[in-house]
Amino acid sequence: IFLFSIIRCSSVIPSLVFVDAATGKVVCRNGLLVVRDDPKGLEFPWGPKPFAEVVAGPLLRNNRQTTDISSLEGHYVGVYFSAHWCPPCRSLTRVLLESYRTVKESGQHFEMVFVSADRSEESFQQYFSEMPWLAVPYSDEARRSRLNRLFGIQGIPTLILLDAEGHMITRQGRVEVLNDPECRLFPWHPRPVLELSESNAVQLHEGPCLVLFVDTEEEGELEPAKELIQPIAEKIMAKYKAKEEETPLLFFVAGEDDMSDSLRDYTNLPEAAPLLTILDMSARAKYVKDVEEITPAVVETFVQDFLAEKLKPEPI
């Protein structure tokens, strides 16, 4: 495979990404870790490896006993990147403790693996003592780094959900756990269209997002907007899933609330409704379709033109 590397502007810079020049497919998002861990290029071309291969090795329990990846076979797996020094991590861990117990008590085959970003063995041990799940040994820095590379971790806390075959279900485990404390939607397969809220607004920074703003004077008025764009969102998700690639566009509907107002203000959007937009926060770019009527055909054309790079961006 012929690869080339690019430096891109993102929420975390510098950022080095390796791409397959023949297909344009991202091979590795955490190129800086690759260069640090494999300076002689012995693992080139640094393509993704199966989770089972990367995580293979001893796994710890907090009673100091060890197990191996056989404990994960046939299970949904949560891979939890976190650290004791990080206040949002500690807050999420408290929620995860309840979620973990809830899922286990429901009879689901579920296990979690803690991948520490702590700054010392002592800090790791203190933090891990609170956790009933498994962990990669802190001393195994190479394996921790490979897991960070595998999932392109750019910040913590991050919770990755995998199916029993080791395929990714979602990168947004943190959002899902906070939005679903009773775990009714476990294992949190991605939903085609989300209603914009404070808890999921962080996903606006994950990549380009289509946001349909609508008037909502009464509860339930977002449903027609979701139904309008859902078939297009489902088609996009299915297309890229078949290619084993990440969906290039997330889909949201937004009503009239403080979160939507803040987003309009931040991105300098007009107050019109309905308003069809695509927001790319990392590129600080927006694309706006201000028409009187939003139809499936209008949305379809807007999305396809964006994916084909036919639209002219405006600065955010």
Summarize the structure.
About 30% of the residues lie in helices and about 20% in strands. By secondary structure, the protein is an alpha/beta fold.
Distance between the termini: 37 Å
Main sheet makeup: 6 strands, mixed
* Residue fraction in strands: 15-25%
**Class computed from helices, strands and strand pairing:** alpha/beta
Low-confidence parts? 1-11
If you had to describe this structure to a student in words, what would you say it looks like?
There is one protein chain. With 316 residues, the chain is α/β, with parallel strands linked by helices. The protein is built from 9 helices and 16 strands. The chain has a 6-stranded mixed beta sheet with strand order 11-13-12-14-15-16, covered by helices on one side. A 5-stranded mixed beta sheet has the order 8-7-6-9-10, sandwiched between helices. Strand 9 and strand 10 form a beta hairpin. Helix 1 runs antiparallel to helix 5. The longest helix has 21 residues. One of its GO terms (biological process) is negative regulation of protein ubiquitination. It is an enzyme of class 1 (oxidoreductase).
Helices and strands in order, then pairings?
Elements lengths: L2 E5 L8 E5 L5 E3 L2 H7 L13 H5 L3 E2 L5 E2 L8 E7 L4 H19 L4 E7 L4 H8 L5 E2 L5 H11 L6 E5 L5 E3 L2 H7 L14 E2 L13 E5 L8 H21 L7 E5 L3 H10 L7 E6 L4 E5 L6 H12 L6 E2 L1
Parallel strand pairs: 6-7, 7-8, 11-13, 12-13
Antiparallel strand pairs: 1-2, 2-3, 4-5, 6-9, 9-10, 12-14, 14-15, 15-16
Helix pairs in contact: 1-5
